[in-house]
Amino acid sequence: MIEHNDIGDLPWSGIAIGWGWGLYDPGSFPGIPGAVSGQWGTYDTPTTSLGNEIVNNRIQDYVQELWDGGAIYSNGQQGTSLEDGELIAGNVASGKRPEAGSNTFYTDGGSRYVTLFENVSYDNPVGVTDLGPCGLPSSLALCWVRLPYGSDSGGCRPYGDLHFQSNYFLDPIFYDFVCPYPPYPVDVTRTDDQVISGPWDVPERILREAGRQWSGRRFDPRAQLADTGPSSSSAGGRERISEPGRKRLASR
């Protein structure tokens, strides 16, 4: 578990978890553009990374030098189901470098079995891709291209089985437009995510409990999820969004 940290002034991501972009997982999912299933070998056993919780962290001023990162960055399979997968809950993120193309809560290549609950993202503007530098033998052919990239949530070639519930985002759209890989991600569900205009629209409880300050009681997001609905709910398709629209939320 990674909980109650203040993390800031970061050249890249705040917290990063996972490896392999799906290529090391059973089935060898090609979670990197241009990858081919099996190119790093074939694996039959599920990941040993399961049950990880990233809870109540305050992350500020990230990707200050690089790009293509996030406040919390995941890749690869994170369990064997949503029940024993990765839980990202109660984290508050702001202050991304404006030019850095990045997703705040970034479920990148091969990400699977991740639940995001009561997280907050604000002051994280859309950035641009940076495929440079140009003029080197190793430079990419499209090194000069600058495309808008990033949102409060998104990823490049995630597998799916991603559940969003009661998050507070300026933009509820899952961003995967630069590197689409249909039909993936599959089974992306959203329940009661709120569209906000700033931190004043977020319950004070969530803002107060993020970071090093300690409230005196253990926050158990898995129990709270169980009380509000099954974490294994599935859209059965690309994405289902239940969005109540922008509204000011009272502290609770």
Strand content: 15-25%
* Order of strands, widest sheet: 1-4-7-10-15-18-20
* pLDDT < 50 runs, ≥5 residues: 230-252
User: How many strand units?
Assistant: 20
Q: From N to C, what is the helix and strand string?
A: EEEEEEEEEEEEEEEEEEEHHE
Rounded to an integer, what's the Rg over CA atoms? 18 Å
Please, what is the average pLDDT? 88
Question: Can you give the helix content as a percent range?
Answer: under 10%
Kindly, what is the distance between the CA atoms of the first and last residues, rounded to a whole number of angstroms?
25 Å
The coarse overall form would be globular
Number of helices: 2
Number of domains: 1
Structural class: mainly beta
Q: How would you characterize the largest beta sheet?
A: 7 strands, parallel
Describe this structure in words.
- The structure is a single chain.
- The chain has one domain.
- The protein is 6% helix and 24% strand.
- The chain contains two helices and 20 strands.
- The longest helix is centred in the C-terminal third of the chain and has 8 residues.
Helix and strand topology:
Layout (H helix, E strand, L loop, with lengths): L1 E2 L2 E3 L6 E3 L35 E3 L2 E3 L11 E3 L11 E4 L2 E3 L10 E3 L4 E6 L2 E2 L5 E2 L19 E2 L3 E2 L5 E6 L2 E2 L4 E2 L10 E6 L2 E2 L8 H6 L11 H8 L10 E2 L12
Parallel strand pairs: 1-4, 2-5, 3-6, 4-7, 5-8, 6-9, 7-10, 8-11, 9-14, 10-15, 11-16, 14-17, 15-18, 16-19, 18-20
Antiparallel strand pairs: 12-13
